[in-house]
């Protein structure tokens, strides 16, 4: 089950963070079709956010066809997003790269900016 981590200082709306983290879990294969998302109550207890925020995020995911709400049962994953399993060799390489970047003295924001620049260069015009 996914555990949401809310960064109140990121400038990103809380519901968007939930949507993004759910999509990341789908891409990484951590959530699979048929899996149940945490209930709004579980998310509220873990993150101390408003239940309506969780419901808004889940409605957005449902609108995108990624999850479906089943009355009285919860919210379940309808489909996955990617083909990058959590144990991918690419992840291992990226983990090593991140360790080297940190050892070189780069801050998280520096690494994020560098990674984003490389992504933009290689995926320019990519519709996804």
UniProtKB/TrEMBL annotation:
It comes from the Bacteria. This is GntR family transcriptional regulator. SMART domains: HTH_GNTR. The lineage of its organism: Bacteria, Bacillati, Actinomycetota, Actinomycetes, Kitasatosporales. Keywords: DNA-binding, Transcription, Transcription regulation. Residues 12-80 form the HTH gntR-type domain. InterPro entries: Tscrpt_reg_HTH_GntR, WH-like_DNA-bd_sf, WH_DNA-bd_sf. It comes from Streptomyces pyxinicus. SUPFAM superfamilies: Winged helix' DNA-binding domain. Signal peptide: none annotated.
